[in-house]
Amino acid sequence: MAVATQSLEQLCINTIRFLAVDAVEKANSGHPGLPMGAAPMAFVLWDKFLKFNPHNPKWSDRDRFVLSAGHGSMLQYALLHLAGYDLSLDDLKQFRQWKSKTPGHPENFETLGVEVTTGPLGQGVGNGVGLAIAEAHLAARFNKPGHSIVDHYTYVILGDGCNMEGVASEAASLAGHLKLGKLIMLYDDNHISIDGSTDLAFTEDVGKRYEAYGWHVSRVADGNEDLAGIQKAIDEAKSITDKPSLVIVTTTIGYGAPNKAGTSGIHGSPLGKTEVPAAKQNLGWPEEPTFYVPEDVKNYFGKAVERGANAEAEWQKRFDAYAAEYPELAAEYKRVLAGELPSGWEEALKPVTEKADATRNLSGFCLNALAPAVPELLGGSADLAHSNMTYLKGIEDFQPGSYDGRNFRYGVREHGMGAVLNGMALHGGTIPYGATFLVFSDYMRAAIRLSALSQVRVLYIMTHDSIGQGEDGPTHQPIEHIASLRAIPNLVVLRPADANEVVGAYHVALTNPKRPTLLALTRQKVANIAGTSVENTLKGGYIVVDEANPELILIATGSELEITVKAAEALKGEGKKVRVVSLPSWELFEDQPKEYRDSVLPPNVKKRVSVEAASSFGWAKYTGDEGANVSIDTFGASAPGSICMEKFGFTVDNVVATAKKVLG
Predict the structure, then answer these.
(1) Closest CA to 305 of 72, 89, 84
(2) Of the four, 146, 232, 548, 637, which is 20 to 30 A from 285 by CA?
């Protein structure tokens, strides 16, 4: 079929297909199969349903679109370009190139119109659940009778790989429980993954699984041609208000490529010099020019700009009427969507006790002190709320019928929780936190990494932070976790020592809008230490006990600062000149000017000892060749926490003995 004889809808769909094909071919890298197969469903969604304004991509009441199958990123880039976003043909031609707006997988911080950073499969499903949660919460909080200022959908396109990943299962199960009716996912059911047919490893009935989760499930048997069927299925999904919806759309990967369609060979490789012209001939597309967009297609997609402007203008009228009747709520809505903290919030956050207490308890005090002052702060735990101390007292749970609630019950779903948190944060209007034991950060590491990459304000509250956890033994005692988390760029890791440092940690978490923060907190009680301060905690490292011209520097984090200060007192009693430095956050300390860092850790003082009940990995950065580490490089043991700490050498006597060896 020649271009001239194709319907306008076919022209639009084939334009999407071949923009993707040409971009992948030019880059000699990428995934053309998904865009070719999923183009019909994506076209119907973007043309008939998706509410957006290309000239204001951040309009708050836009629908959210997530490409969970992020390897098919050229599908999204083609749509963004055609719909009038700030993404030119030249940008498409720079697909997967240095500093381009079209990276290999969608990235929210690189490309306007991309809502979330998807790469690892299944993450986008969790992100979509988080986006839908945020919409439901803000609607419950701000909408009033006759005034719906928050009223949008979250649409997700996912693939077979997403449905194989456990993170998607965790998130989908939670979404079904929460009855998120404005979450609609389109499953590109093409039966192909990288290794070949999904029959090799994935033969379950996905639809029945989602029905068991509590989802509405429908099917489109011919996703290649049946545009009316796709539209009908999405219309039906929108009519179901008490369940999220999964539309299973059966497609052919690489549709139109005569020799490779329906095979794994088209999943992650360019079509090649012979298959590209064959596919274009097969679908009636000119071989030249590449990146061809027919005028009729430009004109048709161009209507999205006017349509989006009109939709936002209509919403603005509704918002103006809302603001006239509810001026304080309208101002509050603008504030939370801008990501600005309420005035005077700091007054709520003060050191909460002079008694010795676990830093997990001190964290709980801070959360509950902040809750009335920062109403966008919300979150929960992976079934450990009363161990993590994260429950907000006197505030409802987020559940069906009470979407204005701020306490979240994530169940034992750490990985799903992390992906959901990212979606909530990227939606805007919320500051989400999630909690579990530090050792289980392993289960959510991919989501934590994506928080850092996505530049979002997510707070991870991790308790039971060392062998001090005690009797549960080595399966529950983190050793290498803090070192591995410190290795993640743009993540702030804080291991506070006492009440002052916990308060400082919350200051850091709330005032860093483009960095996630992770708190590592104790189960055991710690004393408040003379010399700590909220203000200095913000610098990541500072002097707690000083001595003019020290010959030795002791550096500690968290619960070990207490024994380190006592060790310094003992050493001073023997005439040693000792400085004690608290280093709750390496990242914040490294952010300080060199002059400040050198004033805390003078380069000429090379006798140094670090004290941290965790792996020594990385500490050589601060202790150098002439220093030593009081650390633990084995797994822990099952015993009371105090016994574990003693047996593994976290005692005043051992710190003193180690210091003396360093001093020689």
Answers:
(1) 84
(2) 232
481 shares its domain with 595: no
Burial of 325 (C-beta count, 10 Å sphere; 0-12/13-18/19+): exposed
Q: Which residue do the tokens 């001239």 mark?
A: 4
Task: Give 482-493 pLDDT, tens digit per residue.
Answer: 999 999 999 999
Q: How confident is the model at residue 1 (pLDDT cuts 50, 70, 90)?
A: low
Q: Are 563 and 655 in contact (CB under 8 A)?
A: yes
- The verdict on 50 and 152 lying in the same domain is yes
Enter the DSSP assignment of 73: H
pLDDT tens by residue, 523-549 = 999 999 999 999 999 999 999 999 989
Q: The tokens 């939670």 sit on which residue? A: 174
- Give the integer Cα–Cα distance in Å for 428 and 338: 8
What are the residues facing 250 on neighbouring strands? 189
| Alpha carbons 364 and 111: distance in angstroms, whole number | 37
Rounded Cα distance between 432 and 423, Å, is: 10
Q: Identify how many contiguous H helices and E strands the chain contains and give both numbers.
A: 25, 20
CA 553/CA 661 separation, integer angstroms: 13
Nearest Cα to Cα of residue 439 among 411, 408, 407, 468? 468
State how far the Cα of 6 lies from the Cα of 286, in Å rounded to an integer: 13
- The owner of tokens 């029905």 is 211
**What's the distance, CA 410 to chain centroid?**
15
**Statement to judge: residues 485 and 564 lie in one domain:** no
Q: Which amino acid is at 244?
A: P
> In this structure, is residue 248 part of a structural domain?
yes
Q: Rounded to whole angstroms, how far apart are CA atoms 565 and 77? A: 56
Question: At a CB cut-off of 8 Å and minimum separation 6, what does 40 contact?
Answer: 13, 223, 224, 225, 227, 230, 251
Q: What is the DSSP secondary structure assignment for residue 397, as one 8-state letter?
A: B
Q: Is residue 440 part of a domain?
A: yes
Q: 558 in the Ramachandran plot: left (φ > 0), alpha (ψ -120 to 50) or beta?
A: left
Write down the residue that tokens 């360019």 correspond to.
270
Distance (Å) of CA 133 to CA 144, 210, 215, 333, 446: 18, 18, 15, 16, 21
Q: In this predicted model, what pLDDT tens digit does every residue of 299-349 receive, in sequence order?
A: 999 999 999 999 999 999 999 999 999 999 999 999 999 999 999 999 999
Q: Is there a cis peptide before residue 286, judged by omega within 30 degrees of 0?
A: no
What CATH number is attached to the domain comprising 426? Answer: 3.40.50.970
Residues 72, 122 share a domain: yes
Q: What pTM, to 2 d.p., does this model score?
A: 0.98
Q: Which pair of tokens denotes residue 592?
A: 């300080």
Domain boundary among 306, 336, 363: 306
User: What's the start-to-end Cα distance of the chain, in Å?
Assistant: 86
Residue 476 is which amino acid? H
> What is the 3 state secondary structure string of 144-156?
ECCECCCCCCEEE
State the Cα–Cα distance between residues 457 and 507, nearest whole angstrom.
12
Query: Do residues 354 and 228 share a domain?
Result: no
Question: What residues make up the domain containing 202?
Answer: 3-306
- Name the residues annotated as catalytic: 414
Q: Which of 98, 429, 494, 48 is nearest to 228 (CA)?
A: 48
User: What is the Cα–Cα distance from 439 to 384, expressed in whole angstroms?
Assistant: 13
Asked whether residue 339 is assigned to any structural domain, the reply reads no
Rounded Cα distance between 247 and 43, Å, is 15
- Cis (ω within 30 of 0) for the bond into 35? no
Identify whether residues 133 and 205 lie together within a single domain: yes
- How many domains is the chain built from? 3
Reading the block at residue 26, the tokens are 């030019």
